Amino acid sequence: MRGYRHFLALLLIMAVAAPVLAQGGACAAPLDFQIGDRARVRFTDGTGNRLRSQPTTSGSVLAIAPEGSEFTIVGGPTCADGYNWWQVSLITQSATGWMAEGMPGNYWIEPALVANAEEAVTGSTGGHESQTAGLPGPPGALPVGVQRLRLTTLDLDGTLGVYESGSGWRMLSRLDEDASLPALSPDGGRVAAAAGGRVYVLDAGSGATLQSFDWPQVTGNTALAAEWVAWTADGSGLLVTVSERNASGFPRSALYRVDPNTLAVTELLPLSDAFSLQGPPGEPPQVIVTPDRVIELPSSDKAVPVVVHSFDPAPTFGGQPYIPRLSWLTGGAAYYVIVPQQAGSSIDLVAWQLTPGGVAVEVLRVPDVNGTGEGLVSPSGRYLAVSYWADNAVRVYDLAAQEAERVFDGLTTLYGWTPDSSGFIAAAPPGPLTYHGLNGDTTSAYLPDVPALRSIFWLRDGTAIFRHVVSGGTELGVMRPGAMPFAVRNGADPGSAVLLP
Predict the structure, then answer these.
(1) 38-67 pLDDT per residue, tens
(2) Domain ranges, ordered by start, for the chain
(3) Are 486 and 468 in contact (CB under 8 A)?
(4) Is the pTM of the predicted complex or chain greater than 0.85?
(5) CATH of domain 130-500
(6) Which of 113, 136, 110 is nearest to 42 (CA)?
(7) Could you tell me the CA-to-CA distances from 29 to 50, 228, 376, 421, 432 in Å, in that order?
(8) Among 83-87, 188-192, 298-302, which stretch is predicted with the lowest mean pLDDT?
């Protein structure tokens, strides 16, 4: 069970993140699974989902199902400890137990994408073949004035690949099935990933291994193993998340900076229950977010992390700590964090603006918000969208006017804003992502016209990288500015991307 988890927001910057509030262990409405449905562990940060003996966080751990592991729903749901639990039978590990679904805004399981994906897209079983057909392949030439794109991909079996404008997709290496999403260096020349507790650095052109090491090799600590890898903003070092290797209780993780040439190691964050690395969309991570702090990453190996904001008291969900997802202004000039704050017998939702290296300024306080999900500020800094899972609605607030702008009903999960701040993306799981314009529009030039959109993030030039459902599975696609969307690879998940000269 992923109650405490870290995720690399750089790689899945628009990935659904943890909600901000739950009261007294109450549960939101469960996902719409039926007995006999086939589901899988979602791809998010490379960590597995715990299978427990009982539907509670105190149940013993029977197995850890890696991302992508499929299972059959055999019982549930049951509400306990703030989570909805499903009794499941793992297909590949021959084990049956209870698995938490996650929470509104941060679901850890999803429907498996099997042969009846057409039904999942349309809600019926016939007459919609044209809606689930795949996109055309990559174009032979780029639009005028558009930079080349390099994008890493990861298949369920551990196949690591790279797509490049004008060259198409090619396989780089085959790693273990538990491989983390591959991260490109800022110059696009190297690819890093963790698999089987080992870190690999590959040449992005040839796929040749430039460096590989496990954690005991560089520290002598046999109790820790590498789980996640990212690059520093200048490309001079690796940010490596390592976790304790134990079979019970919540994982504890630490963050280190590693020189990929000398293997010199610097500890940035000691063993903690949970944290995440976050940064502007499509950019290297800039901060560490824990359940009670926002910490800026050092600019060099000689500097130390700096705490720029502390949460007092630390926010919780269902009595357990959670990690808020930051909202970044266009260009990364500032970022926002939205957290609950106890106010007598009720909860206020407070939005803070943080300037890198500066101080936090409160920009909005929404009183008495018991039962909210997540809050995200638009890239322009003008609007705040807040999901209210108890009401199945998203409310948008005008930060300049300090008042509610509009209510959007029928939505439980807030996904993010479009780059132009014209609207937001949300869903009513397990349904697809949909666009909701502030002016009432239901389409945006920043979103591809595809069925059953499942994930999307944008680079600074407006390039969209997305996954959507097609007949028989999912398809990874790209939409460049001013161009039509195209397919990159079926069944693959996106890693990171850079724009090349």
Answers:
(1) 888 876 555 678 889 899 888 888 877 877
(2) 130-500
(3) no
(4) no
(5) 2.130.10.10
(6) 110
(7) 21, 32, 22, 29, 17
(8) 298-302
